[in-house]
Specification:
With about 250 residues, the chain is α/β, with parallel strands linked by helices. The protein is about 45% helix and about 15% strand.
Length: about 250
């Protein structure tokens, strides 16, 4: 991995995908900065990454939903990262969120507002250097609002639109922006759900696809790739027909 892509900052590093990404980038020799609300939970992982791959790895506290914490985190960064990845996400419970504004706000803020704000701040720092990569993990749920998860999906739709606009803004400024749209992923967030095996990726599969897309300078990827073709007719289906679907 070229030196200008390192260190790799992972926001939401205690997630299953975040840790899988840490391993994939460390394999390629990248230094790591892992951001998490409870960085002490990463101590064993940091030691493992350092011993296994011989890379520099450190953690920094970040409560993504707290503006003061975001400001302290940015001040504490030792360098402008070469690569920034936001894996932050909260699935929530749609039925409860429909009648609880606080829960709905948590889903919307975690999946869109807070990641967009931290990536905006980091993008401005990268602009001063004129290089870098920004990767946002969105979701196929953002491609079309569904009755069963439209709060989560709407936040991911907003995040995807944010990344698209950021990519257009930074396109000629030396900064690459990648949007990642996972389908089902076998993580703690989906624990207990009955997911179809053929459509469900492991965190390691998602991480490997992200790194390949990063190094290939792709703009938008679906993981697994077959989700692109699954979502195409769903996006195109006329609204009167779409509303009749029970999913």
């Amino acid at each position: 991995m070229s030196a200008d892509l390192s260190p790799v900052l992972i926001v939401g590093a205690t997630s299953d995908i975040g840790l899988a990404l840490a391993h994939e980038y460390a394999k390629r020799g990248a230094a790591l900065i892992l951001a998490a609300r409870q960085p002490d939970r990463l101590e064993a992982d940091l030691l493992d990454l350092q011993n296994r791959y011989g890379v520099s790895a450190r953690s920094i506290a970040l409560d993504l939903l707290d503006a003061d914490s975001r400001a302290r985190f940015l001040d504490a960064l030792p360098v402008v990262p070469g690569t920034v990845i936001s894996v932050a996400g909260l699935l929530g419970e749609q039925e409860r969120s429909e009648s609880d504004a606080a829960l709905a706000e948590a889903v919307m803020t975690t999946n869109y507002v807070a990641p967009a704000l931290i990536l905006s701040a980091l993008a401005n720092r990268m602009l001063g250097r004129g290089s870098g990569t920004i990767i946002g993990v969105s979701s196929v749920a953002g491609d079309r609002g569904r009755a069963s998860n439209y709060l989560y999906g709407s936040a991911k739709a907003g995040f995807s639109a944010f990344l698209s606009g950021l990519r257009a803004r930074l396109r000629a400024r030396g900064i690459h922006v990648l949007t990642v749209k996972p389908g089902f992923v076998d993580t703690r967030m989906t624990s207990g759900m009955k997911l179809p095996a053929v459509l469900t990726a492991s965190p390691t599969q998602v991480a490997q696809e992200i790194v390949r897309a990063h190094l290939g300078r792709r703009s938008v990827i679906y993981t697994l790739g077959r989700w692109r073709w699954i979502m195409l007719p769903i996006r195109l289906l006329p609204e009167p027909l779409f509303m009749r679907l029970k999913f």
